[in-house]
Every structure is written in structure tokens, then in C-alpha cells.
TrEMBL record:
Protein name per UniProt: ATP-binding cassette domain-containing protein
InterPro entries assigned: AAA+_ATPase, ABC1_TM_dom, ABC1_TM_sf, ABC_transporter-like_ATP-bd, P-loop_NTPase, Type_1_exporter
Membrane protein topology class: Multi-pass membrane protein
SUPFAM superfamilies according to UniProt: ABC transporter transmembrane region, P-loop containing nucleoside triphosphate hydrolases
Function of the molecule: May be involved in multidrug export. Transmembrane domains (TMD) form a pore in the cell membrane and the ATP-binding domain (NBD) is responsible for energy generation.
Bilayer-crossing regions: 9-29, 49-69, 118-139, 145-164, 224-245
Superkingdom of origin organism: Bacteria
PROSITE patterns linked to this entry: ABC_TM1F, ABC_TRANSPORTER_2
UniProt feature coiled coil, ranges: none
Main location: membrane
Residue ranges annotated for the ABC transmembrane type-1 domain, each copy included: 120-288
Domain ABC transporter: 319-522
UniProt-annotated location(s): Cell membrane
Length: 522
């Protein structure tokens, strides 16, 4: 199994493990000598022997502790670096994979952590321990060493076969977990649609199906874990029993072994087989962790183009598309579209739900790369108004001003959008804190607040996704009046679902048949 760790750490772990196992062997050597003096020679044990036995045991214990602390520190630093690399992949372009990305950061990363923190140090330490004990056993009692050599390969052979299957099951489980999380969050987002279309039973059936798949994969992994543990115990008991039987026969019948060699062998044998058992368990856990690592690496290895695909040199148009195609994977939303939008005026965009209007807006914002063609914009001074804006923990004033405008400017734009009346009723007015995305305003007032943040800058291009949604009739008239005024200075591109906004539009385009055509029904 590939350890996925630099050679310098493998060397460090190996040297530390050799020192620890050597201390254990020397402890066993001196303890055996002390007990031989007591049991066979009927002597009072020498102070030197007892001191050395105690000293090497303390050294062994200290080296184990240092090894655990060092390996944990290295593992944490490597996990932190891997997490940073993963987080750097998070961007606006990862929206469609947001749930998988969150799972990778918060679930798969933690499931992989034991691989770095426990599996790698344990495998190296155990491999060194097995080698040193076998070598020491040849000097102490060759028959026991041969028994160890004969029985030891059964554990790794069994776990190679089981571990490969476990890794497949782990990958399937991780995939099911991602799909279940994605489905659940998508259903939360679309709960209103589910209710309006009376699709509750369909949703329940899909959730039950995904949950059943996840439970099935989990139970398969538990089955392999149980089988592995049972097999380990059997091999461990068998190996220790064979060595104990051989040593007993040598002492009682053949008289071919000293007490020192017998005790030392029986001290080393359980340590040898326990190490094998630990190696087997960690091999199983390591394959589980690698399944989660594969999910992480899929996201890390994705090639995301970073260069700006928008070209800011349009002279006569706010936006110009030349042979633009757009979509998601095999799903095509636009094909070979040519379009030019003026530098001023309100351009209304209509079309059925799911046809690509919002994706088109994201493309203009630099958040969705077209698959083909060229996109030209007059300027990068773009304001965006969307219902997906997140309110961080700040004040209403700081949210609108973004640290660039005075209180007077903020109050002015809020007055234009008829918000100051409501804000003045708050104890702290425009300095009211926004905590945990909680704003003490109605839905329509929140919409206008988002508009205020964008419009205070008076950007040259304004992109809006249904700006008058949630507004009452009076407020809608006021907002439409304001938009009708500023459209003479800016290019407003708005996704439209309501007739009143379409009435003040200068140009109307409709999405239809993977194209954008002039006019059309609302």
C-alpha cells in the first residue's frame, strides 16, 4: 500500500521505531536474565540487571510517547496543508459541487486524518518491530523464529485480499454520502417547489433510495471489519499457542532450551503477534481512509482554468457575445450565440425556468466560463443584485457602504429606495448589527437593501436577477421609477418575471432553443 508520505518522514519514523524496539528487546533481555537468577539459580538478582531492565523499560515507554507526539504533529501539519490545498479549489465556479466540497473539507478530510495520524506511523513502527523481533528470535531460539516466519505471512496475505475489497466499499460509501448530502440540500433549497407541485412522495422515495444505498455500503464495511477481526484473533492465538507448545516441549521433554531463552521467547512472541494484529487492523482502516482520500483528490486534481475569459475592450456595447456556447458538461444551454447589448438602457431577459438565464448572468459576472466563443464587456465596473447574496456579520451601514461611502451617501441611497422609514424605527438605525444572516427587515426590504449596496456605486453595468421580487405594489412602483431614471446612465441587464418591469425595458430578449432571440412572451 502506498503511504503517500515524503521519504524523510519514513526515514524519521523508521529510526525512531528502531530505537524503541531495540529498547524493548534490551528490556526483555535483562528481565530474562534477572528472572533466570531468581527462578533457576535461586539467587538474589543483581542490582545492575534490575536497574538496566527498569532503565530500558522507561526508555521504551518514553520513545513510544515521543513517537506518538512527533507523528501526530507531522500528521496534523500534512492534513492542514492538504486542507489548504483543497480550500484553494473552492471558488465561485464550484457552486455546482458545493455539497461535495463541504463533505471533502468536513467529512472526508476527518475520515482520512487517521491514515496520516495512526496508520502510517503504526505500519512503519510495526514493520520495524516485526523485523527486529524475528532477528532477535534467531539469536534466542531459532525454532520460534521459524514458526513466526511461517505463520506471519498469513496476516498480510489475508488483509491484502480483504483490504482491496474494503477500499472499493469505502469509495462507494463516500460517493453515496456525497450524493445523499447533495440531494438533501437541494431538496431544502427547493422545498417550496416540492410543496407547490405536490411532489412530497417522490422526494421521500428518492431520499429513501439514497439512504438505503448508503446504509448498504456501511453494513458491507462493518461485515468485512468483523471478519477481519475474527481472523486476526485466530491467527494470533494459533501463532502464540504454537510457540508456547514448542517451548514447553523443549523444556519438559527435550531439555533443549534454557529458562532465559524460554522466557525471552515467550515475551517476544505475544509482542510479535500483537504487532501483526495491529498491522492487520490498521491495513483495514487504511483502506477505508484511502477511499475518502480518493474523493478529496478528485476535487483537488480538477483542472480549473484561472485566466479571465472576459475581454474588457468593447467600444460600442456594454456586452457583446461572439459565437458563445454555454452549459454544464453535456447539458447545452446556449449554442453559437451572437448578441450585442447597449451601454445604456434596460435590457430584459425572459424565458422558462431552468433554461439558463441565471447561468447567463453568472457568465457575465465571470463566474461561469463559456464552452466556446468570446465575451466582450465595456468595463469591469459591474454591480450585481441577486437573492443569493450572503449577509456577513456586520452592520447595515457597513454592508451598504462596503467601507467606501459616507453615512450621508448611504442614507441618500436608502431614502431613494424608501428604506429609511423602517431603519429609523430600529434602535440603532442604519448601524443595526446583522448577526448570523438575521436582518430585522421584511423580505421586500431585504431586496431593496441588496439593491442599495449595488446601486450606491452607480456602476456602468448593473446585472439584476428579478429585482422587484417580494416587493409590494407601492414599493415596486418606486423602485421601477428609480431604475427608469438610472438606466439613462448605466446598462441594466435584468432577468424579468413580472410585466411591470418589462414595461420599462428598452430591449427584450428571450431564451429559447439554446439561443437568445429578440422579443417574446413574458
Amino acid at each position: 500500500m502506498k503511504l503517500n508520505i515524503p521519504k524523510k518522514y519514513i526515514l524519521l519514523y523508521t529510526l525512531m521505531s528502531m530505537m524503541g524496539v531495540a529498547a524493548f528487546v534490551l528490556f526483555g533481555h535483562n528481565l530474562s536474565l534477572v528472572l533466570e537468577e531468581i527462578v533457576i539459580e535461586k539467587k538474589t538478582p543483581a542490582v545492575k540487571g534490575m536497574t538496566l531492565a527498569g532503565l530500558f523499560f522507561i526508555i521504551y515507554a518514553m520513545l513510544l510517547m515521543i513517537y506518538r507526539v512527533t507523528s501526530a504533529k507531522i500528521a496534523n501539519s500534512r492534513i492542514e496543508a492538504l486542507t489548504t490545498e483543497l480550500i484553494e479549489k473552492i471558488g465561485d465556479g464550484t457552486k455546482k459541487q458545493s455539497e461535495a466540497m463541504l463533505n471533502a473539507v468536513f467529512v472526508h478530510m476527518e475520515k482520512y486524518r487517521p491514515f496520516e495520524k495512526v496508520f502510517i506511523p503504526t505500519v512503519i513502527q510495526t514493520a520495524v518491530k516485526l523485523a527486529v523481533i524475528i532477528i532477535a528470535s534467531f539469536f534466542v531460539h531459532k525454532n520460534a523464529a521459524f514458526i513466526m516466519l511461517f505463520t506471519a505471512p498469513f496476516v498480510p496475505l489475508y488483509y491484502i485480499l480483504v483490504g482491496l475489497r474494503t477500499k472499493d466499499e469505502s469509495e462507494a460509501q463516500a460517493t453515496q454520502f456525497d450524493e445523499l448530502g447533495t440531494l438533501f440540500l437541494n431538496l431544502i433549497r427547493g422545498k417550496d417547489t416540492v410543496r407547490y407541485t405536490q411532489s412530497q412522495q417522490t422526494v421521500i422515495d428518492r431520499l429513501r433510495s439514497f439512504n438505503s444505498g448508503y446504509v448498504k455500503e456501511t453494513m458491507n464495511i462493518l461485515k468485512y471489519a468483523f471478519q477481519s477481526t475474527l481472523m486476526l484473533e485466530f491467527i494470533t492465538i494459533l501463532g502464540i499457542g504454537l510457540i508456547a507448545l514448542e517451548v514447553g516441549l523443549q523444556i519438559i521433554i527435550f531439555d533443549g532450551i534454557t529458562f532465559y531463552a524460554a522466557f525471552f521467547t515467550l515475551l517476544l512472541a505475544p509482542e510479535f503477534y500483537n504487532a501483526l494484529k495491529v498491522l492487520g487492523i490498521e491495513f483495514h482502516n487504511g483502506k477505508l481512509a484511502q477511499g475518502h482520500l480518493d474523493r478529496i483528490e478528485v476535487l483537488i486534481d480538477q483542472e480549473e482554468p484561472t485566466e479571465e475569459y472576459r475581454i474588457f475592450n468593447a467600444q460600442t456595447s456594454a456586452v457583446r457575445l461572439e459565437g458563445v456556447s454555454m452549459g454544464y458538461g453535456e447539458l447545452s444551454l446556449l449554442e453559437n450565440v451572437n448578441l450585442s447589448l447597449p451601454k445604456t438602457g434596460l435590457t430584459a431577459i425572459t424565458g422558462p425556468s431552468g433554461i439558463g438565464k441565471s447561468t447567463f448572468m453568472r457568465m457575465l459576472l465571470g463566474l461561469h466560463r463559456p464552452t466556446e466563443g468570446a465575451l466582450y464587456l465595456h468595463t469591469d465596473d459591474i454591480g450585481y443584485i441577486s437573492d443569493e447574496v450572503y449577509f456577513s456579520d456586520t452592520s447595515i451601514y457597513d454592508y451598504v457602504s462596503d467601507g467606501r461611502y459616507s453615512e450621508e451617501d448611504v442614507v441618500s441611497i436608502l431614502n431613494r429606495l424608501d428604506l429609511m422609514g423602517s431603519l429609523n424605527n430600529l434602535e440603532q438605525g442604519i448601524h443595526t448589527e446583522i448577526v448570523n444572516h438575521n436582518i430585522p427587515l421584511s423580505g421586500g426590504e431585504v431586496v431593496r437593501l441588496k439593491m442599495a449596496r449595488a446601486l450606491i456605486r452607480k456602476p456602468e453595468i448593473i446585472i439584476m436577477d428579478e429585482p422587484t421580487e417580494f416587493l409590494d405594489a407601492t414599493t415596486e412602483e418606486m423602485v421601477l421609477s428609480y431604475l427608469d431614471e438610472i438606466k439613462h446612465e448605466s446598462a441594466i441587464i435584468a432577468v424579468v418575471h413580472r410585466r411591470k418591469l418589462l414595461n420599462i425595458a428598452d430591449i427584450h430578449y428571450t431564451f429559447a432553443d439554446r439561443n437568445i432571440v429578440r422579443g417574446g412572451a413574458l
